[in-house]
């Protein structure tokens, strides 16, 4: 989601929420932050892993683990540019995830995706 010169290592936190199968699938929308607004495609898999990337996006692709915990969607992982840790959070919804992201590099922003 964000490119930086910081290599903060992989996030290896155990998941304590649940994998809601209703969220599995492709989600399309936008991401916004210090690099401007860009399109993003997020693929949530049934094993709790996800990938996120945009076409012609200045934001780095992301590999993460996702879960639903306390009525929130939470994804934590690392970008594929230099391993920067990234967290996405949004209120739980089966049709639209609209929330915030932050990176260990200090970059932050918003995202809004709808299930296809």
What attributes characterize this protein structure?
116 residues; mainly beta; 8 strands
Return the string of H and E elements: EEEEEEEE
Counting H and I runs of at least 4 residues, what is the number of helices?
Answer: 0
The coarse silhouette is globular
Mean pLDDT: 90
Strand order of the largest sheet: 1-2-3-4-5-6-7-8
Provide the low-confidence segments as ranges.
2-11
For the CA atoms, what is the radius of gyration?
A: 13 Å
| Class computed from helices, strands and strand pairing | mainly beta
Strand content: over 45%
Biggest sheet overview: 8 strands, antiparallel, barrel
By DSSP, the count of extended strands is 8
End-to-end separation: 21 Å
Bin the helical content.
Answer: under 10%
Would you mind describing this structure in some detail?
- This protein is mainly β.
- The two termini are 21 Å apart.
- Mean pLDDT is 90; it is low at 2-11.
- An eight-stranded antiparallel barrel has the order 1-2-3-4-5-6-7-8.
- It has strands at residues 25-33, 38-44, 49-53, 62-69, 72-79, 85-91, 96-103, 108-115.
- It contains no helices and eight strands.
- The radius of gyration is 13 Å and the shape is globular.
């Amino acid at each position: 989601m964000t490119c930086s010169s910081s290599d903060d290592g992989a996030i290896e936190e155990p998941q304590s929420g649940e994998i809601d199968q209703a969220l599995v699938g492709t989600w399309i929308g936008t991401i916004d932050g210090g690099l401007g607004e860009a399109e993003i495609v997020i693929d949530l898999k049934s094993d709790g892993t996800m990938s996120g990337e945009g076409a012609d996006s200045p934001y780095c692709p992301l590999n993460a683990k996702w879960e639903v915990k306390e009525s929130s969607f939470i994804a934590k992982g690392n970008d594929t540019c230099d391993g920067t840790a990234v967290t996405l959070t949004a209120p739980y919804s089966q049709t639209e995830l609209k929330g915030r992201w932050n990176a260990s590099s200090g970059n932050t922003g918003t995202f809004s995706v709808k299930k296809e």
